Amino acid sequence: TGQFFYQDEDIDEEFFVKQAESYGFDKESYLAALRRIPRFDRETIRNLMSFLVKLATHVSQTSLANLRLAKEIRSRKRIEEILRKREVHLRTLIETIPDLIWLKDPDGFYLFCNPKFERFYGAKEAEIIGKTDYDFVDQELADFFRANDKAAMACNQSRPNEEELVFADDGHRERVETIKTPMYDAEGKLIGVLGIARDITERKRAEEALREGDRIKSQFITTAAHELRTPLHAITGFSELLLQENLPAEQQREFLSIVIEKTRDLNNIVNNLLNIDRIESGEELYLQRSLCDINALVRSWAEKLRKNDPYHRIETSFPLKPVILYADEDKIIQALEHLVSNAVKFSPQNTKIQLSGETVGGAYQVSVKDAGTGMTDDQIERIFECFYRIDASHTAPGGFGLGLSIVRNIIKAHGGKIHVESELSRGTKVWLTLPLPNETA
Questions:
Q1: How far is CA 264 from CA 231, 259, 261, 270, 405, in A?
Q2: Which of 17, 103, 159, 353 could be stapled to 112 by a disulfide with Cβ–Cβ 3.0 to 4.6 Å?
């Protein structure tokens, strides 16, 4: 509006004439300018002022709203950045976890999965999302997965189960413990089922090993009680007989021989257990090596063997020509005693047990062959385990199941090898291969 007068306002021109004179204005021009000043009625001015106040209020409110919006946008961007970082962190965390992780909607369609799960189906996440188990595995397995999903949703809580998975990327198998948990949004609406599967293959093996250890321990205690009781009963019984008065000297010698023999049996049992304990604890078997003629050594030992076992036909085939080994004679004989003992235990009376030796390449080979009960392939795989016995029944031949384990460690300490071939009802043959010393040795 600029400068104005109200229409009902009286103008005192004399006041303006004096003002022009006071300031040295041109009076005529000054009065002409006064008369050009517009006049408005008061209603028009009130309307204008009201409009301007409302306009100013609107502008200020709009500016304040814009300031608030800018602040909210900045705050929202900060929140979005925080959420983005958290999402990246969560995604990295989930992708780093070695377990299989996935999320399905209530109808079984995949919403998310991690790299370990990608390996299971042999596909990328983008290829898995939007599909179901029926697109990747056979119907029986897909039905199994779906049934567990439904069971978790029905019970409204986490539900574990065990299963074996075959990974499509390389075909390896894993025994896993799967936990499926129903997920809900803020309004309590079911949005899907979260699955986490952890590899428990090694844990299962450890549990099985513990169970097997308990079984072996129980079997060992039972066997030990039996094996120790037998010679102890003989020692006790014949010692009591020796206390009788007027016992003929010949019987005294006979009974004393039995006591000494059974005492040696007990000593052998203790030595075998101590040897196994040292071997199991990682100690190397101590050898007292010397140069020896293996043919003469075994022939001499076999002659004693024939005299002590009248129930089997023990045949030997060892060259007369000396074969020199650098070995522990006592340990080699101990190994052969275990092999022959097994052959005797599992061979019917009057059957043949053959011992032979020959030089093969740069090694000497000793074999023990029997015509006994023989073994299956599965039994052959386990015969070198400590305390393993082919027949653990109460009517089985005696023994702790340590012999072949001791034999293997004796031969291994000499740098040799042991090989076993057997067939049910056709007998068993065991070869011990010992290296010949070189010229330097």
A1: 9, 9, 5, 10, 21
A2: 103
